[in-house]
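Work package 3, deliverable 3.1, input record:
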Amino acid sequence: DTEVTQTPKHLVMGMTNKKSLKCEQHMGHRAMYWYKQKAKKPPELMFVYSYEKLSINESVPSRFSPECPNSSLLNLHLHALQPEDSALYLCASSQDRGLSNMKEKLFFGSGTQLSVL
Amino acid sequence: AQSVTQLDSQVPVFEEAPVELRCNYSSSVSVYLFWYVQYPNQGLQLLLKYLSGSTLVESINGFEAEFNKSQTSFHLRKPSVHISDTAEYFCAVSPRGGAQKLVFGQGTRLTINP
């Protein structure tokens, strides 16, 4: 199994809603990532978890709340989002050997397309 | 901080023609360099990467990229493209010794025409 599975694939929510994005991998990876990709733009890193601990938060607004309940799961809780938060949210995982390791490779999910009305 | 510039937002090419996708980077420290490909409605996949050693790196599907330190470039090439190569290609960098952090360029949409 070399997949990163993200659910749901599409999500439409209002600005007062609370929703969650889910990401799952069963490759034994110990690093998991959330990226945000707006239309026709490159992915931008939001959060990194290493061994289930938050290691990087790229100054993301608190209306985005990540959670890593175990080494296979990564959630992104959403609350009081703005229309400009509409984007493709990508999850990724890696073995966490460090990018200097030739065998280190990020595996990306196909993303959740989020629309905030 | 690092930044990546992909000079071409779109590159249309005929099938079996050669292609070069350009990537330049800026960084105050040494970096690792990557090319990722994103097919429609999919996540990103690693195509190839440069960590150290030989400046020419190759992928299993015929792409290659050459690291040029003096020109701070990491251009991607393929001598003969196929329809299936149609995708968005992202160049990315990560600082050596730094955290697991990739900075992506704006992307180049490669369109292969029959």
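Chain B is about 0% helix and 55% strand.
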